[in-house]
Design brief:
The protein is α/β, with parallel strands linked by helices and about 250 residues long. It contains twelve helices and nine strands. Bound molecules: ligand C2E and calcium ion (2 copies).
Length: about 250
């Protein structure tokens, strides 16, 4: 897999797919999360949960991340030209975050595509944001000052303290899928409510991922979550499919 992945990255065969993010109060599609996809001629589809860690461990993640990022900027530029206001959420690995001149590079690339940094959400997992707190906080602050929005991904699975969260200057918490799975259980429900209340107290938006049915969506709306994402609304899709989905969705 490793050798084949190197080949796929070198020949630019990693694709960017898009999953809609829905505003809970209106049902409108407010943006997308960009997710890497890889199809190998012999092995078939290989999921990012498999190939992203490999790419990280063999020093390929920056190049891979760059391809996904540039594809999403091209898409975002075209959507903007069509008058579609969509925010673009991109996953950022540890090595990308700590790359020298990362902020400067991102700024240069968004400006080349006539995109405002405010329409980009950089998703950093809770564990990365807290691994090297001072260093990460500094970098996140720098990105934020440059105008990018920051989301803490997989929130609730790491061990952030309230004071760390307060110092992080982020914009959103993405509630981990494991909480959404436990909405039927009263204790699971209280945990999700607690995260939403915490986010409110800190003036942060919340996104719930992994919403697979209307019942969960309704619960989350009642709890006051701001954005919903999951198979109930749409799966991640190639760009053309997403554009078709969006045109259909916007009609309703
Ligand atoms: P993540 O950032 O937490 O992304 C959310 C994952 O949940 C995605 O898995 C998405 O397809 C999946 N998902 C969305 N809705 C549902 C649902 O209703 N039910 C279920 N069961 N799953 C749902 P995916 O695409 O397999 O990505 C896995 C992980 O790989 C991502 O987790 C992210 O950490 C990483 N990843 C994906 N693309 C990239 C990338 O371009 N760069 C980096 N650094 N990491 C990436
Ligand atoms: Ca994510
Ligand atoms: Ca997540």
């Amino acid at each position: 897999i490793q050798n084949r992945l190197v080949n796929a990255v070198n020949s630019q065969r990693i694709q960017a797919w898009y999953q809609p993010i829905i505003e809970a109060s209106t049902g409108a599609c407010s943006g997308v999360e960009v997710l890497a996809r890889w199809h190998d001629d012999e092995l078939g589809w290989i999921g990012p949960a498999t190939f992203i860690p490999i790419a990280e461990s063999i020093g390929l993640i920056r190049e891979l991340g760059q391809q996904v990022w540039l594809a999403s900027l091209t898409a975002a530029e075209s959507w903007q030209r069509q008058g579609l206001a969509l925010s673009i959420a991109v996953n950022v690995s540890k090595r990308q975050l700590f790359k020298p001149y990362f902020t400067e590079q991102l700024l240069e690339e968004v400006s080349k595509h006539h995109i405002s940094p405010g329409s980009i959400i950089l998703e950093v997992t809770e564990s990365v944001a807290l691994m090297d707190v001072e260093h990460a906080a500094e970098r996140l602050q720098e990105l934020k000052e440059a105008g990018f929005r920051i989301a803490i991904d997989d929130f609730g699975t790491g061990y952030s303290s309230l004071s760390q969260l307060h110092e992080m200057h982020v914009d959103e918490l993405k509630i981990d899928i494991s909480f959404v799975r436990r909405l039927n259980d009263p204790r699971g429900l209280s945990m999700t409510q607690a995260i939403i209340n915490l986010a409110r107290a800190l003036n942060l938006k919340t996104v719930a991922e992994g919403v697979e049915d209307e019942e969960s969506a309704a619960r989350l709306r009642e709890l006051g979550v701001d954005y919903l994402q999951g198979y109930h609304f749409a799966r991640p899709m190639p760009r053309e499919d997403f554009e078709r989905w969006l045109a259909q969705h916007n009609k309703h």
